[in-house]
UniProtKB/TrEMBL annotation, chains A, B, C, D:
<dbReference type="Pfam" id="PF01841">
    <property type="entry name" value="Transglut_core"/>
</dbReference>
<keyword id="KW-0378">Hydrolase</keyword>
<dbReference type="InterPro" id="IPR048930">
    <property type="entry name" value="Bact_transglu_N_2"/>
</dbReference>
<dbReference type="InterPro" id="IPR038765">
    <property type="entry name" value="Papain-like_cys_pep_sf"/>
</dbReference>
<dbReference type="InterPro" id="IPR002931">
    <property type="entry name" value="Transglutaminase-like"/>
</dbReference>
<dbReference type="Pfam" id="PF21295">
    <property type="entry name" value="Bact_transglu_N_2"/>
</dbReference>
<dbReference type="GO" id="GO:0008233">
    <property type="term" value="F:peptidase activity"/>
</dbReference>
<feature type="domain" description="Transglutaminase-like">
    <location>
        <begin position="160"/>
        <end position="220"/>
    </location>
</feature>
<dbReference type="GO" id="GO:0006508">
    <property type="term" value="P:proteolysis"/>
</dbReference>
<keyword id="KW-0645">Protease</keyword>
<protein>
    <submittedName>
        <fullName>Transglutaminase-like enzyme, putative cysteine protease</fullName>
    </submittedName>
</protein>
């Protein structure tokens, strides 16, 4: 499916500020970037860095005092991998590849160690596999209220769980935390999301099952097969769309994504298991 | 300087347990491994993984019920890089290489975002450079009591700061947090430590200054120039010497390190700035 | 029912220490104290204070360096008030007497404000009355593991809930918190508890229903009709059996309670609603 | 000094709501109430309760759906007790009256137990007495930023301390916490405050020194000798000006206090120690 997407951010810079942005579409085999442009005003020198393992695209810019805006546009052709959820199993910890370890351990906002008693009590007895992670998403959707203002940039998964409220960032953190607490590697995903109203950067998560990273969205707010990845990481700390160091005021922020292939959206959300990552062979101790 | 070091761990495995160990000496140019052996009893198949960026050596072992022991020995020739602390400066954020970002952001136990008001109030006015990080270590040493039992595996830097007590793990987390709060990249280091009494795995931290990672130990308990790195990471969550998944009881644990070149230790601890990492050129937006 | 009970505490006092004890049986109409003795060694001057509202008996003693022991014995005749739980209703907040307010508000360890989303989600739809509070106790008993060492003197109700583990103090805090979150006044009770194994000071809670304070024990470890109250308060902070100010080491602690009327205990725990407080008329806005 | 003061609160009640208000001037010997009126619209039946020990005046009102307003006015003649701070000493714990215990122990927002290491490190060596508590206020004023929005109704003293920001409620909680951590009984005070701009309910604290409760205001925002007490308690949980149970929207809130004796205010804030409570004899173990 073809999408036209992008974002426009504007700021008033009060003192020299370094920005680190992560908002460009990740270069995945599943997401072919047909065209792309990034325009800064003023047109400043930028440093570009792509993490070798996760393919996150970071841009560093030093911005002087005054107005500053960033305009990103891309046309992307997304081909997701679909499968029957019932066929997707979990991998015993002893057979997981060791490089997946960062996504099994707790991180700044994914306090999976603190949530382990709860997750074990609630989900340990469920049949394993994609269905179990989907049950986790259903539990989150049924028990956590989507409530802008219920959290901030320091809220952890266990705090959101206690408060029973949060936004997409928190839904993704709780889902990731529950998975890790059950021995399922999981990671936080930032993305452009077709079907999300109002339009915004979206946060979902991926769980590693049967050698592949599968997408999950506990908010149930966007099309699971219309998610264009920006970044993946342990949690929101790693892939904020903007990390500023300096004194500045955000002025405006607009995120957009539309279908551009003339095809309509299906009337119902997909029930397929969806992945946008290539599978990987996993070596493990037998 | 030459060291003979190692560790012996024994367990009683109650049900099949997967261990992920990180306890072998990291292969750095500064730490030449003259000989090394790892003996497991029973002699089980092990999976080996070395993180490509940080060179952490992980071993994965699936251990069946019954007794289990691990014995690691190595002889290491350590050549540290020394410099006059007064000559080592901080790098403005806008000139830091973007791949250092993970060590500027908060992580599971290094809650630098929550400690920023405190760190700014306490240290922002100090002259920048190695001396500032050393002042941080002095502050920690003077204000935090070394108190086994004051923390556990879930304790974060801000909790240790409030409690004014902790162990080496917590001292290193607080030091790392303060640095990150001031815009100095910092990372957690696990190591064998000459001079540490009683002998144990030790935790210190490194701060990135003037293109190099420099060692700091806020506990002041070991020889700064006698630290042999095992792992580096965002914090203790990433490089626990042992991460078990299963039901087991630790039986015994012995860590050892002695000088083996026949030379005595200097009567006083070094005041040099010490690094065991090669320098790196850093690319940044001018 | 007649009970012989008491406690023996011994300490090694390292520097002058002020103790405030709350361990004598509360003088309730339901608990007739037939005989009582308190022996201190050395035999120090003690200050006695009984809170006018809640009848908590505090003893203040200033103890010099050296060995110190306290021995308390009492013979008590307990006559509980029994009722059919199905007949006991909740009182709408608008009709509660205002002096009950302290037991509706959050306190140091009873973080009822933080637990309100959870309590509302879990219990709001249950039929109101004694049965609802009993359902709360059942939930706690089924979901929280009784685990010495899982908490300490600073653990709050929401922390115990997250950890899914605690001791009697934490079970009582969670029960009290859930009640307050539902608008049911509730308070923490310390007591001697017949049937508790191993013998110890016990913590339960009371909920205010239909003009009376009714006892509840979420641990299900003692006879509900064999609880002899020591103190009541907002939470454990108010009625610790011992609050020391000074440098001392506890040496030994023995708590005891046996039936002394020659009658055996019934084979099964009671299912009656139990109260040891006289009823009170409540004035409320109609 | 004579003051005309009061408050006007208006609400839109969405469903039947029980309010418990604590906003009338406390009847102290030092604050003679010359005239007073409380007007509710609609004119509803109210329940009145005055706590026997602390003299807090609570009003309970059940308000039906629709608009609701409360208008309170009073004229008060305040005669404070002044003394030279240098003459006011602390009382050793062993000589404090036992009924002061609630103000030595931690409470919901005054997490003095968690702040004890910090308070001991910072203030233990200071000369004891009124001057030490004043030094505590100076420390708070210098280190905590007055920042509306930095806290909410669940923020505890140690959280405000870590954040280094808060409002009057938090300044009072930290001051109370530090005192309790040093063995100085302290309590939270809500009041009308002359000199406070913008006008609002104010929060300060009192410390028990030399048999008397002395006022302290770490915000330094109001006249210490122009504080008219509404309530005292362990912390803000006990004496919120309004505790609502129901679904309602606050519409408007106006608090006012002016000098009404025609005398001007002195050009500078007083440096006297100020108390509005009568002294009390204290019995203690010699």
């Amino acid at each position: 499916m073809r999408y036209t997407l992008g974002c426009s951010l504007s700021y008033n810079i009060l003192s020299d500020t370094t920005f680190i942005f992560n908002l460009e579409v990740a270069k995945l085999r599943s997401a072919e970037i047909l065209s792309e442009s990034l325009i800064l005003k003023p047109d400043l020198k930028r440093e570009v860095y792509i993490t070798p393992d996760l393919q996150n695209r970071y841009i560093g810019v030093n911005v002087p005092t005054g107005p500053f805006s960033l305009d990103y546009n891309a046309e992307v052709d997304l081909t997701v991998h679909r499968a029957d959820p019932a066929t997707i199993n979990e991998t015993p910890i002893g057979q997981l590849p060791l490089d997946i370890l960062p996504f099994l351990l707790p991180s700044r906002f994914v306090s999976s160690d603190r949530l382990t008693p709860f997750a074990q009590a609630e989900f340990a007895a469920l049949p394993k596999g994609h269905q179990r992670v989907n049950a986790i998403c259903n539990w989150i959707h049924d028990h956590i209220a989507y409530q802008p203002g219920a959290s901030d940039g320091e809220t952890t998964a266990h705090e959101s769980l206690l408060k029973r409220a949060g936004v997409c960032r928190d839904f993704a953190h709780i889902g990731t935390a529950f998975c890790r607490a059950l021995g399922i590697p999981a990671r936080f995903v930032s993305c452009y999301a077709h079907g999300l109203v109002p339009s915004d950067f979206h946060a979902v998560f991926e769980a590693y099952l049967d050698g592949r990273w599968w997408l999950f969205d506990a908010t149930r707010q966007a099309d699971l097969d219309g998610l264009i990845r920006i970044g993946v990481g342990r949690d929101a700390a790693e892939i904020a769309f903007s990390t500023p160091y300096g004194n500045m005021q955000p002025v405006n922020q607009q995120i957009r994504i539309v279908r551009s292939d003339g095809l309509g959206s299906p009337p119902q959300r997909t029930v397929d298991a969806i992945s946008t990552e290539i599978p990987r062979p996993h070596a493990g101790a037998a």
